[in-house]
Amino acid sequence: MRTPNQYIKDLGAHVKDQKGVFILYSILRLLVVLIAIRTIMLHNYEATVTCLLVLALFFVPSLLEETLKIKIPPLLEGIIYCFIFAAEILGELGHFYTQFPIWDTMLHTLNGFLFAAVGFSTVDLLNRTSKNINLSPLYLTMVAFCFSMTIGVLWEFFECGADIFLGQDMQKDFIVDHFQSVKLDPTNSQQVIHVDDITGTVIQTASGKTFTIDGGYLDIGILDTMKDLLVNFIGAVVFCSFGFAFLKHGEKRKVASHVVEGLRLKPEMKEIEEEESETR
User: Fold this and answer.
1) C-alpha angle 171-110-30 in degrees, rounded to nearest 5
2) Which of 59, 75, 136, 189 would you call most buried, defined as having the most Cβ atoms within 10 angstroms of its Cβ?
3) What residues form DSSP beta bridges with 70?
């Protein structure tokens, strides 16, 4: 357990080593605090809770470093802070998800890329620091890819659960002008019935409310989920390509080397020094 003096000393060293990240962190944190104050003044307490969640998430990188005894590179740490801010503050509170349809796609693509980097770094860290493990580049990148896709699937489970049990709409809807279904087959023989050129649909509720949808019918989240998984897949493949090229060819692939070195986790220097002193 660190004493307050040790915490201040470590924080000072962190600021000195990663001045740019600390400035970015401070600016984003100040913005979130100001937004939280505004939401309280507007009595929008749900948004206030979102701001508090963001402030808590900003501590995650430091907690991971402290708990796992690792060093998160400045580039990855800065991207994590920007990702949290873009997803929760701009996306949810700023309504970027509805104002800019590409916003959700962009974040899910980045999510696939980042978690592939995290999965790659975690296994690569074990591969580099353990004397008994020597994984091949292909196996390591496959693990990173599967890790990224698993996180993507778990997130879609979370979105679906929030929509079903909490009445949210995290799985955004699409208006579709055609579909095919065996449900419309009157013979129940699983014949696919194609419905094309839908110009509109009308939804009637038991309470008498009527909703008219122009241009097609409302697809409830299925296409959004598949789109999110697809772009997560693309992001994961992109990073894994860089990771494989780096492991296979090293610094000969300069772009891959810069990307991987900028994002992969490193063991904490204190731990390395302690291990070296013990071996002596």
Assistant:
1) 90
2) 75
3) 267
